[in-house]
Amino acid sequence: MLKNTSFYFETVAPQETIELSLEAVVSPQAEQGSTAVDLTFEYENEEGTAYTGTERLWLNVRQPVQVSLEGVQLPETVYSTETASLPVQIRNLGRAPVYNVQAKLEGRGLFPTETVFAGNMEAGTASEGILEIYVGNRCMEEIGQETEGSDEEKYGSTTAVLTLTYEDAFGQEYSQTQELSTVIQKPEVTQLKVEKSRAKTNQWWAAILLVLALAAVGTTAGMGLKLRKGKRQMAALLREREERRRG
Partners of 52 in the beta sheet? Predict the structure, then answer.
């Protein structure tokens, strides 16, 4: 909306330049982009002949960008040599799109394996990502580095800075930061107790072997009884035939 919509000049000399000062008010709900402003000229020459003309101007409407990080917080405690996950939510609260949106973390003893890249975000949209962070110790400058120092120097409270960067439609870069904190603890050591399990396993195998052995003994005993019974029956049959032959 233009505050002044008409201008009057009684006389304009030959080759004279007139400057018009236009003041515009832009609504907060206006769409970002180019808006046309048409100027219509009405004038007369010295004989009173009327003339008209038009001229079109273009105003670039530029909405301020407003991007925020929401709900970003490191765990209260992390353990050295492990990987921690940091959920990151980015929201475009403005009325203009933003471009090349990304978030990265830097902190003492904390080493992100990647950045969160949200790309281009339209007005009113949100994007979510997860930062995977390798946890070292406070004396470590890079992953895999051998460090020296006491436990008090290596472990304890540490801070990190999460940096959000983005651009507007005109290529201007913006950045904002958020400080996060956590406590790095010594690595957790897990001991596996397998002796009892082995003992139980051995007992099961022993029980199975015992059952098999008893079954084998039973089978052998049964076969022995059958053989002895067969021998007695054969001997009785031979005696009976011998007696018949003699008689």
Answer: 42
